[in-house]
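Something for you to look into today, if you have time. What I am after is a single protein written out in full by you. I want to see for myself how the chain folds. Could you add the entry underneath, on a fresh line?
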Amino acid sequence: MKAAVMYQHGELPKYVDFPEPTIQHDDELLVTVKAVAIKHIDKGSASGRHYSSDAPKQDGRVVGGDGICLLEDGTRIYGIGVSGMLAEKATIRKNYIVKVPDSLDDVTAAALPNAVMGAAMGLKFKADTQPGDIVLINGATGFTGRIAVQIAKHYGAKKVIVTGRNQQSLEDLLSLGADEIISVLQDDESFKNRIKEIHSQTPIDIVIDYLWGHTAEMILGCLKGNGSFTNRTRYVSIGSMAGDIIQLSAANLRSVDLQLAGSGMGSWSKSEVGLLFTEMLPEMFELAATGKLKVGATQVKLKDIAELWDLDVSNGQRLVVTI
């Protein structure tokens, strides 16, 4: 079979002939792969930078973690790979599959799930989003941030404030449900003054953070209290595009009713992951199929994987490889 294979961390994947995977356990299925999204986690795992990554085998490893597949009877499903997914064939877990609506195309269906994990899991399970909440999304101009804006509104957020670097992308978010945009390119004092002003007028209930780094330090500092009663804020770290390490004052933690959590692989319970497959993804697939959830994707071919692996897809699009 043809596949995208990584032989060493840091190299580009190669489009080569590779042995077809075989079922190793009773909970696995062999499937035909149709479409696979290339995500930050895939690139991080391939480079060895992601915390879940392991070293490629000497004879190579197929990259790609999940995708849209066909079962033997032709049923179209989303699945999580046991073997790598950027290949004509793959093995997946029986318990982690979702049927794809007939009206939803392969590319859109492949683009969506990782963003649902990176948005809905944090909003639902870590932040416990409730109707009427005020939500700040730090770093919302990427693909997952755009999905997070829409899901936050779907879950009943009264107001969604978004930050980001690209002004045009920020303005685009207004059409997806964002109520206010804040550029992270302005000077620190202007950025902090705007966050403080918003927080004083409509106390921020939830922060969903895809950037971390210096912007997180500033936002957390803006939430700091002065000894009086404070609004309860649930701060959820999902990404670290602006840096993995921050400085956080102990006084910052003691002076405000703050819940600080992370949302990612290893932080979710088995029951939460179960709900992702039985409830969340089916719901989001239906929203996308009916046009209520806007998903942007750029389609490429598997044979061009080496040239496209590092492609910088703009305007909040997800890169999706069709097989």
